[in-house]
Amino acid sequence: MPTMPEIAKPHLPAYNSRHAAYDLSKIRGKNLVKRIGKSRRYSTTADGVAKLAAYSTLRDHVIKPLLAGVIRRQGRPPKIIHPIDQH
Predict the structure, then answer these.
(1) What is the reported pTM?
(2) pLDDT, tens digit, for every residue of 32-65?
(3) Can you spell out the DSSP letters for 17-83?
(4) Domain that holds residue 31
(5) Is residue 29 situated within a structural domain?
């Protein structure tokens, strides 16, 4: 019988070297990182750092709140509705 922590935590697929290689090829294609010489090391470009910072800020402050408003939760409605949710 599974334990409660095993039931409660979501199952996340393993992040292996194949996924890392795919992700690295994508960010290299977008010129967010560059290879250092002929080694397996990479460094971020100045433009790449700015783009990644802008993306993470947009994701945390714009995209996630917008998506949270679109999803309909089941169950009782909240007793107190925040002014931002009244539309």
Answers:
(1) 0.53
(2) 999 999 999 999 999 999 998 998 999 888 888 8
(3) HHHHHHHHHHHHHTTSEEE-TTSS-EEE-HHHHHHHHHHHHHIIIIIHHHHHHHSPPPSSPPSS--G
(4) 21-71
(5) yes
